[in-house]
Amino acid sequence: MLMTIVSIYTLYVLISLYTSVMQIGYINIAKRKRAILLDADKFLTAGNYAVAKEKLSIVSTFVDYIVFIAWMGVGVSFLQENIFLQNDALQNIAIVMSFIIIGSVISLPFTYYEKFVLDAKFGFNKSSLGLWIKDTLISFTLTLILGSLVVWGIYLIMISFDLWWLWSFTFIFAVIVMINMLYPAFRAMFFDKLTPLQDEALDSEIKTLMQKTGFVSSGVFVSDASKRDARLNAYFGGFGKAKRVVLFDTLIEKLTTKELLAVLGHELGHFAHGDIYKNIALVGAMLFAMFGVFGNLPESLYLELGMSESPSLVMILLLLFMPVLGFIMMPIMGMVSRHNEYEADKMGSELGGPSGAVELANALQKLVTENKSFPLSHPLYIFFHYTHPPVIERLKALGVDIGEVESSLEGTWNKDI
Predict the structure, then answer these.
(1) 122 and 28, same structural domain?
(2) Which letter does DSSP use for residue 208 in this model?
(3) Residue 415 forms part of a structural domain
Protein backbone atom coordinates (compact mmCIF):
# COMPACT_ATOMS: atom_id res chain seq x y z
CA MET A 1 0.00 0.00 0.00
CA LEU A 2 2.86 2.37 0.84
CA MET A 3 4.42 1.79 -2.59
CA THR A 4 1.05 2.46 -4.23
CA ILE A 5 0.75 5.81 -2.45
CA VAL A 6 4.31 6.81 -3.31
CA SER A 7 3.74 5.75 -6.93
CA ILE A 8 0.58 7.88 -7.18
CA TYR A 9 2.41 10.90 -5.80
CA THR A 10 5.32 10.27 -8.18
CA LEU A 11 2.94 10.10 -11.14
CA TYR A 12 1.39 13.40 -10.05
CA VAL A 13 4.85 15.01 -9.91
CA LEU A 14 5.82 13.65 -13.33
CA ILE A 15 2.62 14.94 -14.97
CA SER A 16 3.04 18.30 -13.26
CA LEU A 17 6.66 18.58 -14.43
CA TYR A 18 5.72 17.48 -17.94
CA THR A 19 3.04 20.17 -18.28
CA SER A 20 5.49 22.79 -17.00
CA VAL A 21 8.19 21.70 -19.46
CA MET A 22 5.67 21.76 -22.33
CA GLN A 23 4.53 25.23 -21.23
CA ILE A 24 8.08 26.58 -21.16
CA GLY A 25 8.90 25.18 -24.59
CA TYR A 26 5.65 26.49 -26.02
CA ILE A 27 6.15 30.01 -24.68
CA ASN A 28 9.82 30.17 -25.71
CA ILE A 29 8.70 29.56 -29.31
CA ALA A 30 5.60 31.76 -29.14
CA LYS A 31 7.29 34.82 -27.61
CA ARG A 32 9.48 35.18 -30.72
CA LYS A 33 6.56 35.16 -33.12
CA ARG A 34 4.13 37.96 -33.97
CA ALA A 35 2.95 39.80 -30.85
CA ILE A 36 -0.71 39.38 -29.88
CA LEU A 37 -2.66 41.83 -27.65
CA LEU A 38 0.62 43.38 -26.46
CA ASP A 39 3.29 45.56 -28.02
CA ALA A 40 6.28 43.56 -29.27
CA ASP A 41 8.51 44.51 -26.31
CA LYS A 42 5.81 43.83 -23.73
CA PHE A 43 4.91 40.58 -25.47
CA LEU A 44 8.50 39.36 -25.10
CA THR A 45 8.69 40.58 -21.48
CA ALA A 46 5.45 38.80 -20.59
CA GLY A 47 6.80 35.63 -22.18
CA ASN A 48 10.05 35.85 -20.23
CA TYR A 49 8.10 36.40 -17.01
CA ALA A 50 5.84 33.39 -17.64
CA VAL A 51 8.87 31.18 -18.38
CA ALA A 52 10.72 32.38 -15.28
CA LYS A 53 7.69 31.65 -13.08
CA GLU A 54 7.32 28.19 -14.58
CA LYS A 55 10.99 27.39 -14.01
CA LEU A 56 10.55 28.38 -10.38
CA SER A 57 7.51 26.12 -10.22
CA ILE A 58 9.59 23.20 -11.53
CA VAL A 59 12.24 23.70 -8.83
CA SER A 60 9.51 24.00 -6.20
CA THR A 61 7.88 20.78 -7.41
CA PHE A 62 11.21 18.92 -7.20
CA VAL A 63 11.76 20.18 -3.65
CA ASP A 64 8.20 19.25 -2.67
CA TYR A 65 8.78 15.73 -3.96
CA ILE A 66 12.02 15.34 -2.00
CA VAL A 67 10.29 16.68 1.11
CA PHE A 68 7.38 14.25 0.55
CA ILE A 69 9.77 11.27 0.37
CA ALA A 70 11.54 12.53 3.49
CA TRP A 71 8.27 12.84 5.40
CA MET A 72 7.11 9.38 4.36
CA GLY A 73 10.51 7.86 5.09
CA VAL A 74 11.60 9.32 8.40
CA GLY A 75 10.00 12.72 8.98
CA VAL A 76 6.56 11.72 10.25
CA SER A 77 7.97 9.00 12.51
CA PHE A 78 10.53 11.49 13.86
CA LEU A 79 7.73 13.86 14.91
CA GLN A 80 5.72 10.99 16.42
CA GLU A 81 8.69 9.75 18.45
CA ASN A 82 10.12 13.07 19.61
CA ILE A 83 7.04 15.13 20.47
CA PHE A 84 5.54 13.85 23.68
CA LEU A 85 3.07 15.68 25.89
CA GLN A 86 1.03 14.36 28.79
CA ASN A 87 -2.22 15.53 27.24
CA ASP A 88 -3.08 13.42 24.17
CA ALA A 89 -4.98 16.23 22.45
CA LEU A 90 -2.10 18.67 22.86
CA GLN A 91 0.35 16.06 21.62
CA ASN A 92 -1.62 15.45 18.43
CA ILE A 93 -2.02 19.19 17.86
CA ALA A 94 1.72 19.77 18.42
CA ILE A 95 2.67 17.03 15.94
CA VAL A 96 0.38 18.27 13.17
CA MET A 97 1.25 21.93 13.66
CA SER A 98 4.98 21.10 13.69
CA PHE A 99 4.46 19.43 10.32
CA ILE A 100 2.62 22.50 8.98
CA ILE A 101 5.15 25.03 10.31
CA ILE A 102 8.13 23.06 8.98
CA GLY A 103 6.44 22.96 5.57
CA SER A 104 5.87 26.72 5.71
CA VAL A 105 9.52 27.35 6.60
CA ILE A 106 10.70 25.17 3.70
CA SER A 107 8.54 27.20 1.29
CA LEU A 108 9.84 30.57 2.56
CA PRO A 109 12.89 30.77 0.24
CA PHE A 110 10.61 30.27 -2.78
CA THR A 111 8.21 32.94 -1.55
CA TYR A 112 11.09 35.34 -0.97
CA TYR A 113 12.65 34.64 -4.38
CA GLU A 114 9.37 35.07 -6.23
CA LYS A 115 8.65 38.42 -4.59
CA PHE A 116 12.06 40.05 -4.19
CA VAL A 117 13.87 38.61 -7.20
CA LEU A 118 11.36 37.55 -9.86
CA ASP A 119 8.54 40.04 -9.22
CA ALA A 120 11.03 42.82 -8.48
CA LYS A 121 12.81 42.17 -11.80
CA PHE A 122 9.55 42.49 -13.75
CA GLY A 123 8.28 45.52 -11.84
CA PHE A 124 5.56 43.94 -9.69
CA ASN A 125 6.96 43.96 -6.17
CA LYS A 126 6.34 47.17 -4.21
CA SER A 127 6.79 45.65 -0.75
CA SER A 128 9.74 46.37 1.51
CA LEU A 129 11.62 43.58 3.26
CA GLY A 130 10.29 44.82 6.59
CA LEU A 131 6.69 44.70 5.40
CA TRP A 132 7.21 41.19 3.99
CA ILE A 133 8.68 39.97 7.28
CA LYS A 134 5.75 41.53 9.14
CA ASP A 135 3.22 39.86 6.79
CA THR A 136 5.02 36.53 7.14
CA LEU A 137 5.05 36.68 10.94
CA ILE A 138 1.35 37.57 11.00
CA SER A 139 0.58 34.68 8.64
CA PHE A 140 2.59 32.26 10.79
CA THR A 141 0.84 33.44 13.94
CA LEU A 142 -2.62 33.13 12.39
CA THR A 143 -1.72 29.70 11.01
CA LEU A 144 -0.52 28.56 14.42
CA ILE A 145 -3.59 29.81 16.29
CA LEU A 146 -6.35 29.02 13.82
CA GLY A 147 -4.66 25.85 12.58
CA SER A 148 -4.39 24.53 16.12
CA LEU A 149 -8.09 25.14 16.70
CA VAL A 150 -9.02 23.30 13.49
CA VAL A 151 -6.71 20.36 14.30
CA TRP A 152 -8.18 20.21 17.79
CA GLY A 153 -11.68 20.11 16.34
CA ILE A 154 -10.78 17.23 14.00
CA TYR A 155 -9.03 15.41 16.85
CA LEU A 156 -12.17 15.60 19.01
CA ILE A 157 -14.29 14.30 16.13
CA MET A 158 -11.87 11.43 15.41
CA ILE A 159 -11.92 10.12 18.98
CA SER A 160 -15.68 10.56 19.34
CA PHE A 161 -17.26 9.09 16.17
CA ASP A 162 -16.87 5.90 14.17
CA LEU A 163 -17.67 7.78 10.95
CA TRP A 164 -15.20 10.47 11.95
CA TRP A 165 -14.22 11.20 8.33
CA LEU A 166 -17.79 12.21 7.45
CA TRP A 167 -18.12 14.52 10.46
CA SER A 168 -14.61 15.90 9.88
CA PHE A 169 -15.56 16.73 6.31
CA THR A 170 -18.65 18.56 7.59
CA PHE A 171 -16.54 20.47 10.10
CA ILE A 172 -13.87 21.49 7.58
CA PHE A 173 -16.49 22.44 5.01
CA ALA A 174 -18.11 24.73 7.60
CA VAL A 175 -14.70 26.26 8.36
CA ILE A 176 -14.15 27.00 4.65
CA VAL A 177 -17.55 28.71 4.38
CA MET A 178 -16.72 30.78 7.47
CA ILE A 179 -13.33 31.76 6.03
CA ASN A 180 -15.06 33.00 2.88
CA MET A 181 -17.39 35.08 5.03
CA LEU A 182 -14.62 36.58 7.15
CA TYR A 183 -11.89 36.91 4.51
CA PRO A 184 -12.41 40.61 3.71
CA ALA A 185 -12.50 41.52 7.40
CA PHE A 186 -9.39 39.46 8.20
CA ARG A 187 -7.49 40.90 5.26
CA ALA A 188 -8.41 44.42 6.30
CA MET A 189 -7.50 43.73 9.92
CA PHE A 190 -4.05 42.26 9.36
CA PHE A 191 -2.85 43.13 5.85
CA ASP A 192 -4.46 45.62 3.48
CA LYS A 193 -5.90 48.89 4.65
CA LEU A 194 -9.46 49.25 3.34
CA THR A 195 -11.05 52.68 3.06
CA PRO A 196 -14.52 53.57 1.78
CA LEU A 197 -14.51 54.67 -1.86
CA GLN A 198 -14.22 58.45 -1.86
CA ASP A 199 -15.31 59.03 -5.46
CA GLU A 200 -19.03 59.68 -4.87
CA ALA A 201 -19.95 59.54 -8.56
CA LEU A 202 -18.20 56.17 -9.02
CA ASP A 203 -19.65 54.87 -5.76
CA SER A 204 -23.14 55.81 -6.93
CA GLU A 205 -22.67 54.09 -10.29
CA ILE A 206 -21.36 50.94 -8.62
CA LYS A 207 -24.33 50.81 -6.26
CA THR A 208 -26.73 51.31 -9.17
CA LEU A 209 -25.03 48.40 -10.92
CA MET A 210 -25.37 46.24 -7.81
CA GLN A 211 -29.07 47.03 -7.49
CA LYS A 212 -29.68 45.64 -10.98
CA THR A 213 -28.61 42.19 -9.77
CA GLY A 214 -29.94 42.41 -6.21
CA PHE A 215 -26.43 42.42 -4.75
CA VAL A 216 -26.52 43.73 -1.16
CA SER A 217 -23.18 44.96 0.12
CA SER A 218 -21.85 46.53 3.28
CA GLY A 219 -19.98 49.02 1.12
CA VAL A 220 -17.47 49.66 -1.64
CA PHE A 221 -13.89 49.80 -0.40
CA VAL A 222 -10.47 50.60 -1.83
CA SER A 223 -7.46 48.46 -0.86
CA ASP A 224 -3.99 49.99 -0.67
CA ALA A 225 -2.63 46.95 -2.52
CA SER A 226 -0.09 49.08 -4.39
CA LYS A 227 2.15 49.14 -1.31
CA ARG A 228 2.80 45.43 -1.93
CA ASP A 229 2.19 44.74 -5.61
CA ALA A 230 1.58 46.53 -8.91
CA ARG A 231 -0.95 44.05 -10.31
CA LEU A 232 -4.57 45.00 -10.94
CA ASN A 233 -7.39 43.16 -9.21
CA ALA A 234 -10.69 43.40 -7.35
CA TYR A 235 -12.86 41.00 -5.42
CA PHE A 236 -16.23 40.53 -3.77
CA GLY A 237 -15.95 38.88 -0.37
CA GLY A 238 -18.22 37.63 2.37
CA PHE A 239 -21.79 36.40 2.52
CA GLY A 240 -25.13 38.04 3.26
CA LYS A 241 -25.03 41.62 4.47
CA ALA A 242 -21.32 41.25 5.26
CA LYS A 243 -20.42 41.22 1.55
CA ARG A 244 -17.90 43.82 0.47
CA VAL A 245 -16.80 45.14 -2.88
CA VAL A 246 -13.03 45.67 -2.72
CA LEU A 247 -11.15 47.47 -5.50
CA PHE A 248 -7.36 47.52 -5.62
CA ASP A 249 -6.10 51.09 -5.88
CA THR A 250 -4.04 49.94 -8.87
CA LEU A 251 -7.25 48.96 -10.67
CA ILE A 252 -8.87 52.36 -10.09
CA GLU A 253 -5.72 54.08 -11.33
CA LYS A 254 -5.42 52.16 -14.60
CA LEU A 255 -9.03 51.62 -15.74
CA THR A 256 -11.56 54.17 -16.87
CA THR A 257 -14.87 54.39 -15.01
CA LYS A 258 -16.72 52.49 -17.73
CA GLU A 259 -14.06 49.79 -17.87
CA LEU A 260 -14.14 49.45 -14.11
CA LEU A 261 -17.93 49.12 -14.14
CA ALA A 262 -17.64 46.46 -16.85
CA VAL A 263 -15.24 44.45 -14.66
CA LEU A 264 -17.58 44.78 -11.67
CA GLY A 265 -20.47 43.81 -13.93
CA HIS A 266 -18.55 40.62 -14.71
CA GLU A 267 -18.13 39.91 -11.01
CA LEU A 268 -21.82 40.64 -10.38
CA GLY A 269 -22.54 38.10 -13.09
CA HIS A 270 -20.85 35.50 -10.89
CA PHE A 271 -23.08 36.57 -8.01
CA ALA A 272 -26.27 36.50 -10.07
CA HIS A 273 -25.48 33.00 -11.36
CA GLY A 274 -24.58 31.69 -7.89
CA ASP A 275 -21.06 30.80 -9.03
CA ILE A 276 -19.54 31.24 -5.59
CA TYR A 277 -21.88 28.56 -4.26
CA LYS A 278 -21.06 26.30 -7.21
CA ASN A 279 -17.35 26.69 -6.50
CA ILE A 280 -17.85 25.94 -2.83
CA ALA A 281 -19.86 22.85 -3.79
CA LEU A 282 -16.99 21.66 -6.02
CA VAL A 283 -14.50 22.22 -3.21
CA GLY A 284 -16.88 20.33 -0.93
CA ALA A 285 -16.93 17.39 -3.37
CA MET A 286 -13.12 17.32 -3.41
CA LEU A 287 -12.96 17.45 0.38
CA PHE A 288 -15.56 14.69 0.67
CA ALA A 289 -13.46 12.48 -1.61
CA MET A 290 -10.30 13.27 0.36
CA PHE A 291 -11.81 12.49 3.74
CA GLY A 292 -13.53 9.41 2.33
CA VAL A 293 -10.21 8.01 1.09
CA PHE A 294 -8.10 8.87 4.12
CA GLY A 295 -10.82 7.89 6.56
CA ASN A 296 -10.70 4.34 5.24
CA LEU A 297 -7.01 3.61 4.74
CA PRO A 298 -6.05 -0.03 5.36
CA GLU A 299 -4.22 -0.90 8.56
CA SER A 300 -1.41 -2.39 6.46
CA LEU A 301 -0.31 1.14 5.50
CA TYR A 302 0.39 2.08 9.10
CA LEU A 303 2.27 -1.20 9.61
CA GLU A 304 4.44 -0.42 6.58
CA LEU A 305 5.13 3.04 7.99
CA GLY A 306 6.06 1.44 11.30
CA MET A 307 3.59 3.59 13.22
CA SER A 308 0.26 3.04 14.90
CA GLU A 309 -2.80 4.81 13.56
CA SER A 310 -3.38 8.12 15.34
CA PRO A 311 -5.34 11.31 14.62
CA SER A 312 -2.13 13.25 13.96
CA LEU A 313 -0.79 10.66 11.50
CA VAL A 314 -4.04 10.53 9.53
CA MET A 315 -4.18 14.34 9.34
CA ILE A 316 -0.57 14.57 8.15
CA LEU A 317 -1.16 11.96 5.44
CA LEU A 318 -4.23 13.89 4.31
CA LEU A 319 -2.24 17.13 4.14
CA LEU A 320 0.58 15.42 2.23
CA PHE A 321 -1.82 14.18 -0.43
CA MET A 322 -4.02 17.25 -0.70
CA PRO A 323 -2.04 18.59 -3.72
CA VAL A 324 -2.51 15.29 -5.54
CA LEU A 325 -6.27 15.20 -5.10
CA GLY A 326 -6.48 18.88 -5.95
CA PHE A 327 -4.53 18.25 -9.16
CA ILE A 328 -6.91 15.41 -10.08
CA MET A 329 -9.96 17.58 -9.46
CA MET A 330 -8.56 20.68 -11.17
CA PRO A 331 -9.53 19.76 -14.77
CA ILE A 332 -13.16 19.27 -13.67
CA MET A 333 -13.20 22.43 -11.59
CA GLY A 334 -11.44 24.30 -14.39
CA MET A 335 -14.01 23.33 -17.02
CA VAL A 336 -16.88 24.41 -14.79
CA SER A 337 -15.11 27.64 -13.85
CA ARG A 338 -14.27 28.52 -17.46
CA HIS A 339 -17.92 28.06 -18.43
CA ASN A 340 -18.93 30.35 -15.56
CA GLU A 341 -16.47 33.00 -16.74
CA TYR A 342 -18.03 33.15 -20.21
CA GLU A 343 -21.48 33.57 -18.65
CA ALA A 344 -20.19 36.29 -16.30
CA ASP A 345 -18.60 38.09 -19.27
CA LYS A 346 -21.92 37.97 -21.08
CA MET A 347 -23.78 39.47 -18.13
CA GLY A 348 -21.05 42.03 -17.51
CA SER A 349 -21.33 43.25 -21.11
CA GLU A 350 -25.14 43.42 -20.82
CA LEU A 351 -25.03 45.39 -17.57
CA GLY A 352 -22.69 47.89 -19.22
CA GLY A 353 -25.30 48.89 -21.79
CA PRO A 354 -24.65 49.29 -25.54
CA SER A 355 -20.91 49.75 -25.05
CA GLY A 356 -20.61 47.15 -22.28
CA ALA A 357 -18.90 44.50 -24.42
CA VAL A 358 -16.37 47.02 -25.75
CA GLU A 359 -15.57 48.36 -22.28
CA LEU A 360 -15.13 44.85 -20.82
CA ALA A 361 -12.89 43.90 -23.75
CA ASN A 362 -10.80 47.03 -23.20
CA ALA A 363 -10.52 46.22 -19.50
CA LEU A 364 -9.41 42.65 -20.21
CA GLN A 365 -6.73 43.87 -22.61
CA LYS A 366 -5.47 46.38 -20.02
CA LEU A 367 -5.32 43.61 -17.41
CA VAL A 368 -3.22 41.51 -19.76
CA THR A 369 -0.88 44.45 -20.34
CA GLU A 370 -0.55 45.69 -16.75
CA ASN A 371 -0.26 42.20 -15.22
CA LYS A 372 2.24 41.14 -17.91
CA SER A 373 0.10 38.10 -18.69
CA PHE A 374 1.53 36.28 -21.69
CA PRO A 375 -1.38 35.83 -24.12
CA LEU A 376 -0.54 32.30 -25.29
CA SER A 377 -0.28 28.97 -23.51
CA HIS A 378 -0.01 25.25 -24.20
CA PRO A 379 -3.42 23.46 -24.39
CA LEU A 380 -2.30 20.82 -21.87
CA TYR A 381 -1.38 23.57 -19.42
CA ILE A 382 -4.78 25.16 -19.90
CA PHE A 383 -6.43 21.81 -19.20
CA PHE A 384 -4.66 21.29 -15.89
CA HIS A 385 -4.28 24.83 -14.58
CA TYR A 386 -6.72 27.35 -16.05
CA THR A 387 -9.73 28.49 -14.05
CA HIS A 388 -10.42 31.25 -16.61
CA PRO A 389 -10.90 30.81 -20.34
CA PRO A 390 -8.07 32.02 -22.58
CA VAL A 391 -8.32 35.81 -22.90
CA ILE A 392 -8.28 35.54 -26.66
CA GLU A 393 -11.34 33.28 -26.52
CA ARG A 394 -13.07 35.67 -24.12
CA LEU A 395 -12.40 38.58 -26.46
CA LYS A 396 -13.72 36.58 -29.42
CA ALA A 397 -16.89 35.83 -27.44
CA LEU A 398 -17.26 39.57 -26.83
CA GLY A 399 -17.01 40.21 -30.58
CA VAL A 400 -13.48 41.58 -30.60
CA ASP A 401 -11.33 40.97 -33.68
CA ILE A 402 -7.91 40.02 -32.32
CA GLY A 403 -6.52 39.12 -35.71
CA GLU A 404 -5.23 35.76 -36.84
CA VAL A 405 -3.60 33.43 -34.36
CA GLU A 406 -1.48 30.57 -35.63
CA SER A 407 -3.39 27.34 -35.09
CA SER A 408 -0.39 25.85 -33.29
CA LEU A 409 -0.32 28.75 -30.85
CA GLU A 410 -3.89 29.18 -29.66
CA GLY A 411 -4.76 29.69 -26.01
CA THR A 412 -3.78 32.27 -23.42
CA TRP A 413 -2.39 32.79 -19.98
CA ASN A 414 -4.81 34.54 -17.59
CA LYS A 415 -5.56 33.79 -13.96
CA ASP A 416 -6.81 37.17 -12.90
CA ILE A 417 -10.22 38.78 -13.12
Answers:
(1) yes
(2) H
(3) no
